[in-house]
Amino acid sequence: MKELLFQLQHSLDQDHYYLCLFVALTIPDICGAISSDNGEANGQKYRDWYTQYVYPTFNTLTAEECYHYRCTALHQGKSIPNKNKDYHRIIFLEPNQRSRISVNRIKTPSETAIMIDLRSFVEAMIQATNGWLKVNESADNYKKNYTSFMQRYPNGFGQFVKGFPVIT
């Protein structure tokens, strides 16, 4: 998990914003699954994790809004959440000198949009995950489920690959 967060931060520092947004949107799924009894993700676990770990410090999007955005973005490639009546679009602003806002709701005569600073959103997910790790790394469910978590092995994996990095 720490390697995933390290690579997410590195990607953010390298301006790989699509990757960062997509990975950040999956973090509540991953953490919710790892800390659950059955090790599987679902919408309720996503929303519960987001509400507990992200929302207290980044309350721009509710857990429900973030989950629906995640579904449309990751599965359909859309930035228009299909289950929200309060706004029509979420706009993530790439970091630049003119986008130094954390959030803003913009209304035009025909649409309403939520504008979110992408760096702030990704960093909030990283911070939330680090806080979650401090509490959960020693928990039984974490220990049980983390063994199945996709991980990077820098020197290969078991009898299958030796001498170079793999992810499995």
Q: What can you tell me about this protein's structure?
A:
The protein is of the alpha+beta class. It contains six helices and seven strands; from the N terminus they run ααααβββααββββ. It has one domain (2-167). The strands form three sheets. The protein has a three-stranded mixed beta sheet with strand order 1-3-2. A two-stranded antiparallel sheet has the order 4-7. The longest helix has 19 residues, at 118-136.
Structural class: alpha+beta
Percentage of residues in helical conformation: 40-55%
Radius of gyration: 17 Å
Mean pLDDT: 90
Beta strands, count: 7
Query: What's the total helix number?
Result: 6
Largest sheet: 3 strands, mixed
Number of discrete domains: 1
The N- to C-terminal Cα distance equals: 13 Å
Provide a brief overview of the structure.
With 168 residues, the protein is of the alpha+beta class.
